[in-house]
Amino acid sequence: MMELDANAALTETELAEDIAVDNHAIDSEQPEEYDDELAEEVLMIDNVMLATLSAIEEITEKTLLEEAIIELDELIELIEVDMQGFTCDVEKRDQLLYLFYQQLGFAGDWRKWLELDSVLLHKVISSRNGVPLSLGTVFMYFAEHFEVDVTGILFPGQFVLRFGSKQDGMYIDPADGQVLSRHKLQVLLRGIEGNHALLSDDDLFEATNEMHYLRLLQVLKAALIRDEHFSYALRCIDLILEIDPDEPYEIRDRGFLLQQLDCKKLASEDFAYFIEQCPDDPITRVLKAQIDELAATDDTIH
User: Strand 158-163's sheet: what is its strand order?
Assistant: First the structure.
């Protein structure tokens, strides 16, 4: 298993959630105007890979879905023959893991986990390198094609794959395809939550398609903000809110981004909503000051 120093790199959860955008920490380069007219609402996610690629296409306004699917089909074709003849679930699982990580060479490198290309699925498909969440998403697409039963687990700090049931299943690190024993899961958990954390069933939460899709968008949003693609990040939040329209932390982050786009009135409304929903959050004091500051200036009309 790839050794990961919990203090040396951000986890996916940190990348996705610790992203409050400080108005004074962002470069002053003016982003595009805010456009809140996105495509039709996503009500149900039938296929996480296709839904996420479509979302990335919409966010970046680049045609990429068709090419990514073609590339995926070509990769599947490369290992199609080697998957034939396996009928036992365990044999199919082990063979696909071998082919995905050894023959095709998919892998994760924690030193690149802050890079946008490690999150964007079409880039991950091409480079065969990404964060555990993106690699796990690609693997699950392969698994569905070859009828290998696998479940995505929203483990604290990292996405994990599980084969079998919660009680006696096998857990896999999507970064390298290696088995995660209960002891290794415990070590990972303590790296995220502290030395006193104890592994429980609550930490092995099964992701629905909608949860999986939302986690991908949240990590993508964080990576876009880190690379200062603020307009793209705002579109990403709009897609997240189509699934979870009342999520206060997403609305808070939208407010920060709207503030960068000089949409002061809309930003103030988002901050006020967050304060109302999460009055005990430590950041509310800062947001109240932001609202006062925004009220003192004229709102830019787009």
Answer: 151-155, 158-163, 170-172, 179-180
CA distance linking residue 107 with residue 158, whole number of Å: 15
Q: What is the DSSP string of 194-233?
A: -TT----GGGSPBPPHHHHHHHHHHHHHHHHHHTT-HHHH
Among residues 59, 140, 36, 62, the alpha carbon closest in space to that of 97 is found at 140
Contact 131, 220 (CB under 8 A): no
Query: How far is residue 207's CA from residue 42's CA, in Å, rounded to a whole number?
Result: 17
Q: What is the largest CA-CA distance in the chain?
A: 71
How far apart are alpha carbons 51 and 53 in whole angstroms? 6
Evaluate whether 175 touches 124 at the Cβ level (below 8 Å): no
SS3 content of the chain, % helix, strand, coil (to 5): 55, 5, 40
CA-CA distance, 287 to 300, in Å (whole number)?
Answer: 19
Give pLDDT tens digits for 235-272: 999 999 999 899 999 999 999 999 888 888 999 999 99
Q: Give the other-Cβ count within 10 Å of 267's Cβ.
A: 24
- Tell me the pLDDT tens digit for each residue of 110-161: 777 778 999 999 999 999 999 999 999 999 999 999 999 999 999 888 899 9
The secondary structure element, H or E, covering residue 60 is helix 48-60
Kindly give the parts of the chain with pLDDT less than 50: 1-10, 13-14, 16-43, 299-302
Which secondary structure element, helix H or strand E, spans residue 160, and what is its range? strand 158-163
Neighbours of 285 (CB within 10 A): 10
Phi and psi torsions of 262, nearest 5°: 70, 20
**How distant, in Å, are the alpha carbons of 144, 233, 235, 248, 263 from that of 35?**
36, 12, 8, 20, 11
d(CA 120, CA 102) in angstroms, rounded, equals 22
